[in-house]
Amino acid sequence: MPYVEIKKSRAYEWIKRILDISLSAFLLLLFLPIVLCVAIAIKIDSKGPILADTPERVGKNGSLFKMYKFRSMVENAHEILRENPKFATLYSEYKRGSYKLKDDPRITWMGHFIRKHSLDEVPQLLNILKGEMSLVGPRAYYPDELREQQKKYPNTRDAVKIVLSVRPGLTGYWQVSGRSEINFDKRIEMDATYVRKRSILYDLLIILKTPWAMISGKGAL
Hints:
Blueprint: H1 10-30, H2 32-45, E1 57-58, E2 64-65, H3 77-83, H4 88-96, H5 109-116, H6 124-129, E3 134-136, H7 143-152, H8 157-163, E4 169-171, H9 184-197, H10 200-216
Parallel strand pairs: 3-4
Antiparallel strand pairs: 1-2
Helix pairs in contact: 2-5, 8-9
């Protein structure tokens, strides 16, 4: 996918990467007891793997990567929604709602809890260590999501190109400002605004706001 780079200094890029590695390694150790409890609870709660088997996401420069997330839905949830004729109406609602569903029947009992408090996102710390993601950045979108939403909101195409020039983030500007309550056109513009304004201080401010977003569960679906 095409992208437009908003250049920042090498110092910023180096410091950001050092922060990504050091903080994600620290958080993995800090969350280890929670990770073990969540993994056990997922296996007890429903049939299927601990990690979600989801389609690849679009990363920096339009490259695709496999995002790690705890499974919060029934097994094969993405295939069921897209391919099962019984879910055709739900899939149409999913696309109309900026690829979010307010009442998603595929979410498990445990899934509701870990999604509300963003615990399903913790395995993405491994993506950060691998260099596929950053602690702070835009949302990691699905390829079909970007294609369909740009058809729906053609005025977002320039913003999408800017967003794809950087690594997606575990948290970000829109995630701490309402999260899933924000439609795609506003969300992608907020992501592009972050890319233009990004700095170490701005990243640290978003990181400091993230724990409250996790605890409150505001806007989570």
